[in-house]
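Hi Y.,

Following your request, here is the sequence exactly as I used it, all 157 residues.
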Amino acid sequence: MNAETNAPPLIRTARLADLEALLALEQTSFSSDRISRRQYRHHLHSTAAIVMVAKQSDLLVGSALVLFRRGTRIARLYSLAIAGQARGRGIGRALLDAVAAKARARSCTRLRLEVRPDNAAAIGLYARAGLVRIGQRPDFYEDGSEAWIYELSLAGG
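Below is the corresponding structure, written out as tokens. Let me know if you'd prefer a different format.
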């Protein structure tokens, strides 16, 4: 590892120029329930979504997609992906913090997400970040797996 790899990631809003790197990260991060090119294009241009990216040494090493629905103050973290070689370096937490800040800026009071019960790394990240498990959704993922629902209060942050 070099000094650049240990530097904090640059977190910013994704641009259309990031599309190929986002798709590559999606491909290597998930075996199913992937976001398609068409979906990413839609989210990158939508006012009801924000795609954030993390870059280190000019490489896209993480992404987060948060969705906002009219009529509710609950933001939904739809996806969080970290490149394998970048895991364990605080990039997930940095993206989670950035997404929470964006949600607060839109007057959201809560951030919710679903996670596979067997994704121990993600569950650990969410617990350390203050998210609390509030429920579950049966048969949520393409393979029939249930999802655990986690929530973060955005009040006072």
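Residues 110 and 123 are 18 Å apart (CA to CA).

Thanks again,
Q.
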